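Box 4.2: Ligand-aware structure prediction
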Amino acid sequence: MVRDKILVIGANGQLGSVLSVALQKIFGKENVILSDIKPNPLFESHFEKIDAMVYDQIEYVVKKYSITQIYHLAAILSAAGEKYPLRTWRLNMEMMLNVFEVARKNSVSRVFFPSSIAVFGKNVARSKAIQTSFINPSTVYGISKAAGENWAQYYFDQYGLDVRSLRYPGIIGYKSMPGGGTTDYAVEIYHSAVKKEKYICYLNPDTKLPLIYMDDAIHATIEIMQTPIENIRIRTSYNLASMSLSPIEIALAIQKIHPNFKVDYYTDFRQNIAATWPSEIDDQQARKDWNWQPKYDLTQMTKIMLEQLEKKYKKN
Ligand code: SER
């Protein structure tokens, strides 16, 4: 049996840093090569510095370790991307196309490419974005993900490259920080609560968005990558849903444990982005094709987030 050799690109990011450790636990450290543009003190072994803008750097590592699967997680997110629209487009597209090209030319059998709720825009039913909803993203990040989904389909149809993808909701976890997203508030709010600080929220209190607890996001990612090829029926990207929450709902859940916790609301441009995203997405297809089922709700997630962050801040 040929063992899979995995390469994670973007291993230092919010999802990458947690997913990398989960993959290493399952496949063994020696079979999971981590990479990012900067070294990471947490990942001393099995780490390669890769600038995914440079095709040769990816190919060198793929050849060196005979990589069979790539998780390509590097991207500029929705809010940060709006500051430099053309740069964001170039980076997100170039990195992705480099990965797809290296994969098809070097017999990498499977690629994971993350998409996002950001592919949806004003023309989608905010209350429920179905799998086949029209996608007309409002941010450059969303446009790059929508294009990426179509490229994933193209590489599968033209070259048989087995690219698999999820439209992630905003991800909430305690082990890592998000950077530059519109849903970052949902992690920051827990940090403020534990530090006993007031949180200044840049979204309106009632702005509901799809969100997911980190462990569920990891489990969905590993699950879709393990599913037999004949069960993968969506070759663009699967809608993935878990919770649908607004800042006030998270604040109230935190206040049940920290009654003195306070939030003020001062919206900025990120409110305009959130207003174009659906509040809920329909993930029936993922549930049907590969038995997707989230495990965590707001109460469980809040308890874990607060307990784990307490420990983390006490240690430091
Ligand atoms: N969490 C991401 C963002 O806010 C969505 O994919 O940009």
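In the box above, the bound molecule is serine. The chain is about 40% helix and 15% strand.
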